[in-house]
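Morning F.,

Quick status update on the modeling queue. The single chain you submitted on Monday has been processed. Sequence for confirmation:
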Amino acid sequence: VGAMILLTIVGSIVMAIVTAIRAEMTGEGSAGDIDRKDERDARIEAHGDRVAFYVSSVFMVGVLTMAMLEVPHFWIGNGTFVAFVVAGLVGAAAKLTSYRRGF
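Structure tokens below.
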């Protein structure tokens, strides 16, 4: 199991390096273009994060309610996990929608 994890990490690093070198050689992009952001990208990212925050806040009120009602810890933990997963998915959907429809 440990060898597979190490092999996956090393393989990912090697593939990232090879892909960056290939992109530079073929002129399909440069390593500097990978993380370029403009003002619109920053605003869309902030909008998606804000939506995710609101969703997680609403779900966490439910988790707090479960804690006050002394629900078993298993359900409180799962509720917290679900809150963050749903918030992440809704935030990503908000970002994609903003890119698609314009912001």
